Amino acid sequence: MVRYGMVIDLNRCIGCRSCAVICKMVNSVPPGTWWQRVETVGSKEHMVPVGEYPNLSEVFLPVPCMHCENAPCVKVCPVGATWKREDGLVLVDFERCIGCRYCITACPYGVRQFNWQDADENFKQAFERAGFEENWYAVKDYKHGYPFDHRTKDGRLVYTKTRPRGVVEKCTFCVQFVDKGIAPACVRGCPGNARVFGDLDDPNSEISKILRDRSVFRLLEELGTEPKVFYIPPARKTKRGEVDYKEEVKG
């Protein structure tokens, strides 16, 4: 059985946030909502190094949903709207979610978002805030995102372009693409090729080889959530031509 996971090489992440943007585009993520975030570790502002010259550090940390093996969001959902599929993807059934937000509280990674507003009204206000002319939204009838609803084999709605008001949403590893054998958009759109997606249970997959051969860590491992997103720690050059593989980021 396939069990999907992701490796993110922090040596290759340049902090450009292309992953967040392409995720937002293809998943029709509403204004003000992000399924992916990229942080500058230790800094209050993105792309601002920490430390004092010349001892500066600038490490970028992408944070998607961890699709935990032992997912706390699944345990607290009172209606079974959030569940873990056989292939390891943790998904939300938009037709079953009642918007209680227990899952948001339970998630230690802060990756879940709540739709407070009707999708059409949300987009309209976003265009207005961006300075577009009045009624531009109505005239153009523009919406971004993968155009078709996507359901799992048992009929559960896990992607729809116009998200209902009052439901929780999050990264799905682009389930609408994965079910067609295509990697998530953040993997394909990363200009640094920092992400590898694949089958954790296939010993010959690229991701399995990386996990076997490289030092990796996971965020907040001590909580026992068993995330399926792994990070290759950044290497630090101590002197010209020398590399110390001391971890700069710890879960």
From TrEMBL:
Residues 4-34, 56-87, 88-117 form the 4Fe-4S ferredoxin-type domain. It comes from the Archaea. It holds the Pfam family Fer4_11. Keywords: 4Fe-4S, Iron, Iron-sulfur, Metal-binding. Transmembrane segments: none annotated. CDD domains: PsrB. GO terms for molecular function: 4 iron, 4 sulfur cluster binding; metal ion binding; oxidoreductase activity. This is 4Fe-4S ferredoxin iron-sulfur binding domain protein. It comes from Ferroglobus placidus (strain DSM 10642 / AEDII12DO). The lineage of its organism: Archaea, Methanobacteriati, Methanobacteriota, Archaeoglobi, Archaeoglobales.
